[in-house]
User: Fold this.
Amino acid sequence: MTELFPGEDPFIVYQRLALALGVGLIVGLERGWHVRDSESGSNAAGVRTFALMGLLGGLAGVSGLVVGDLLTLAISTGFFAFVIAAYVIGLRPLDGRAPDKGMTTEVAALITYLLGLLAVRGDMTLTAVSAVVLVALLNLKEPLHNALTRLKAFELEAAIKLLLISVVVLPFLPNEGYGPGGIWNPFEFWWMVVLISALSFGGYFAIRFAGPKKGPLVMGALGGLASSTALTVSASRLVSKVPQAGAAFAGAVALSAAMSFGRTLLLASALYPPVVVKLGVPLALAGLISVVGVLIGQRSAQASEESEDLLAEMGSPDDFGTALQFGLLLLLVTTLSYFANEWLGQDGLYTVAALSGLVDVDAVTLSVSRLAETPGGPLMPVVAMAILISVVVNTGVKVVIGGYFAGRAFALRLAGIFLPAFIVAFAGFLFV
Assistant:
């Protein structure tokens, strides 16, 4: 008995054809909705037309299975030629408009056909995802056009620079250690540069769309998830340009720090559960005081400052120079911390924790928590104190960063938040 579809399960082929038809239907629904008020019999391509295009692509794929790929190629060539000719010479514009008004519908038609073909001959998941993305892009016409009209030249330039350093440069850097102890990792170094640049870029647009009071909070939340230190660099750089925004950005730094305290506690408790007894209260208190700092920063922020005025004073969201400067400084501190650790060894656990806290709290949390599980390792209170010292030093670094990039006034704002936080934290540590 001759197979209907050589080498293929007929049920799967029918499933794929149904997907091809479904792709055309959802694209047609979106296109048809925009021309729903057109007169019956107009040239507008809607649900049925796009459904047929998707199905045609699927049938072209099936014909390749049954007859050969040359037939698929012939059908595809004919369809493409028809759509292009209809647009160019205006025989039958697919959406009922003059052919010199754009070609979105024609391009959507070609993509719908290709997705129908892909549904039968390629990956079904990729087909479904691509169809949803296509419909979303088609439906975002007005928001995209509005955003484009509001976009300034220097904002576009900053976005392109960010894409260059992240998409073009970062993936090609080696993700392996060089130098003493393998501590010099080009990928990790450049990742920090990208992260600081991205947070500055995101903070700029957060202020633009959320306003001068809520925007820094959005920036702080993003920084707390990614890197509170990188957030501090970006916020300090913005405050250096607009000193009157210091209160709002101090709140952003406090929010990112509070989130980092919670992350440290979760990591430590996951690696070494007993430590939560001694570390939980101090970090919770420090986080609570930091949140109070966020609220104070919001109340102190200048409500009268308009977003556009603030953005004009900030200038370009491009922050590559500051990011590179801090990345080089971080590389130097990492090197010094490595040699200090080598010299002191485990005997100077608190000193090592303090030095490592200059760079990264997570590394200290990971190392001392694992060390506590080894025979003869440090006791739980010692582990908790080492982590707390690292957190305090790392937070102190944020104050120094604020002073270095934004000046004394901003550093004092941060110190006014974090100093009470850690006085209370150490008190909690002693009495738990």
Notes: The radius of gyration is 29 Å. Residues 153-431 form one domain. The longest helix spans residues 186-226. The mean pLDDT is 80.
